[in-house]
Specification:
heterodimer; A: alpha+beta; 2 helices; about 25% helix; about 30% strand; B: 2 helices
């Protein structure tokens, strides 16, 4: 009986230690991995854009490859140093690398809806403060060709099944878009999957990219 | 369980302690680099995509 109790106690202690380690992994391990990818992406984009600047800047086209970066996102409200490379795709392997562009939605600056999803927590907590954005806040997307400045128009809290937010005109599946919009997506409350925070913005300005630092 | 393991580690107390530490670190590394990355997507943690 004593042996059984001791083994049971040891198993409980072991399980507790493993759970603590898993928590540490979620909090710091995923963030470390993401920031390593983000560093690599930043130098990759700067190298590519440096090459393209010598070639034909005006005709630069975006090459979308799943899991590969093609743009930077900056949100001044999140801090001057807040910057992520956006990768193509929003399945979990891509979201582990950074914010992802929802396949099939518009490209930056295009008429339609440029949708970007990112983790609220884990993987560097990219959209942790998404609920802090207010109408008028700037969301800046930098691609090889241009810098696009969107301004936040409104935000919504929706259920996970609501895919209408991804429509070219959000919420109006059959309507033809006539303006360039951005949609930022993450989960709410943090750590869960019960709701989604959706922040909408519309294109405010665009300018040729200056320098290649993003 | 741990007593059983301790008795099977070689050498005196210092040697056993070093072996135990190596085993513990190896287990933690296995969890951190293999098991946790594999299991995280299977858990309902922070799912962000509409419809997903």
């Amino acid at each position: 009986m004593r042996t059984v109790l001791r083994v049971f106690g040891e198993c409980c202690l072991t399980a507790g230690a493993v759970l603590l380690l898993f928590l540490a992994y979620l909090l710091w391990g995923t963030t470390l991995a993401t920031s390593a990818h983000q560093h690599a992406f930043a130098s990759q984009l700067q190298r590519q854009w440096g090459d393209q600047r010598d070639a034909k800047p005006a005709t630069t086209r975006l090459h979308l490859v799943t899991g590969q970066p093609f743009a930077f996102i900056r949100v001044p409200r999140f801090g001057l140093h807040w910057r992520f490379a956006i990768v193509q795709g929003t399945d979990l392997p891509q979201l582990a690398l950074g914010p992802g562009h929802v396949p099939g939605t518009a490209l930056p600056g295009q008429i339609g809806n440029f949708a970007v999803a990112a983790h609220r927590v884990t993987a560097g907590n990219p959209f942790y403060d998404l609920n802090q954005l207010r109408p008028g806040d700037r969301v800046v997307i930098i691609t090889a060709a241009a810098t696009y400045t969107y301004r936040v128009t409104h935000a919504e809290l929706v259920l996970p099944g609501d895919t209408a937010v991804l429509d070219p005109v959000p919420g109006h599946p059959r309507q033809r878009p006539d303006q360039a919009m951005i949609t930022l997506i993450t989960c709410d409350p943090p750590w869960t999957g019960t709701h989604r925070i959706i922040v909408f913005g519309s294109l405010h300005a665009q300018a040729p990219r200056t320098g290649h630092t993003g | 369980m741990y007593q059983w393991l301790w008795q099977r580690l070689p050498g005196g107390a210092p040697s056993k302690a070093i072996c135990a530490a190596i085993l513990a670190i190896a287990t933690a590394a296995l969890l951190w680099f293999i098991v946790f990355p594999w299991i995280t997507p299977l858990l309902p943690v922070d799912h962000v995509m509409p419809g997903g």
